[in-house]
Specification:
Elements: H1 2-60, H2 64-69, E1 79-83, E2 89-94, E3 99-100, E4 106-115, E5 123-134, E6 137-150, E7 155-167, E8 174-186, E9 197-208, E10 213-218, E11 224-227, E12 232-242, E13 247-254, E14 260-265, E15 268-273
Antiparallel strand pairs: 1-2, 2-4, 3-4, 4-5, 5-6, 6-7, 7-8, 8-9, 9-10, 9-11, 10-12, 11-12, 12-13, 13-14, 14-15
Length: about 280
């Protein structure tokens, strides 16, 4: 009888140990997935921002043909229309059922942008989406962007408010993103968009449909830097507070064009890859 009782006790301890291990693994996977999805969303919306800029330049710039020829995103498959008679003016980018960009991503649906003035600054642009998808991710919601320009240094600065819902492919779930960001568009070599970079800072709330959420803060002293050459965030540090009051730090590196980031939780640091 004593042997049976001891066997049962040991068995229960083993089951409990395995359950703890599974919980730890599940938590770790969820943290990584959450950061991967939020970073994917950040990069996807930055791509949208830059893609719209190319569409605007291709219709309003004095160097239209050069803009199209050197584009980092636009190919000849999206249909771009501009209604200049409307108030505000309306620019529509229609990707149809499938359109592959120069960045290799497949888009469908429409991006719709309205503005009182596309070619003067300061100005305000509002983006919305009509069944818009990129590489299987569906983007819904709105983005408002107020733009000013430093003509001397060729730097545009925008204040953005994002209210976005993103649905990930392969049953990976849906998330809501509310962001208030300042973004600088640093154009380097003339007519070479791949040499450009975007610097962003501000706050983001990212909530999965399950209710799990994070609030991230990016300072202007250590902002996120997105390089057009690789379509990735390549540097910057993010401070994260979770919905259950844990604190994380994400470091995106020192400027190398890769898809790596370092996630620090307490005294543990792990490298993660952004798919």
């Amino acid at each position: 009888m004593k042997q049976l009782s001891m066997f049962i006790a040991i068995s229960l301890m083993f089951i409990g140990f395995n359950a703890c291990q599974k919980d730890e693994v599940a938590t770790s996977v969820d943290e990584t997935t959450l950061i991967q999805q939020e970073t994917q969303t950040e990069e996807t919306l930055t791509d949208v921002d830059l893609l719209v800029d190319e569409a605007v330049d291709s219709n309003f710039s004095l160097l239209k043909s050069a803009t199209i020829g050197s584009a980092a995103y636009l190919t000849d498959c999206p249909v771009i229309t501009v209604d200049k008679s409307a108030t505000p003016q309306v620019l529509t980018i229609d990707f149809g059922t499938a359109c592959t960009g120069k960045d290799g991503k497949v888009r469908s649906g429409k991006i719709i942008v309205t503005s009182t003035a596309f070619n003067t600054f300061p100005s305000v642009r509002d983006k919305s989406f009509d069944n818009y998808m990129v590489d299987g991710k569906k983007i819904e919601g709105s983005v408002t962007k107020t733009i000013t320009k430093d003509q001397e240094n060729n730097i545009r600065t925008a204040v953005l408010q994002e209210n976005i819902t993103i649905t990930f492919p392969n049953n990976e779930g849906t998330a809501k993103r509310i962001a208030n960001l300042t973004r600088q568009y640093q154009r380097n070599t003339l007519l070479n968009p791949l040499d450009n970079q975007i610097v962003s800072w501000g706050t983001v709330e990212f909530t999965r449909v399950s209710g799990v959420s994070v609030t991230k803060t990016i300072t202007s002293a250590d902002p996120l830097v997105f390089k057009v050459a690789c379509h990735h965030i390549v540097s910057g540090t993010v401070s994260v507070t979770t919905s259950d009051n844990r604190n994380w730090t994400i470091n995106y590196g020192d400027g190398d064009c890769d898809n790596k980031a370092t996630l620090t939780i307490g005294d543990k640091t792990n490298e993660i890859r952004i798919r």
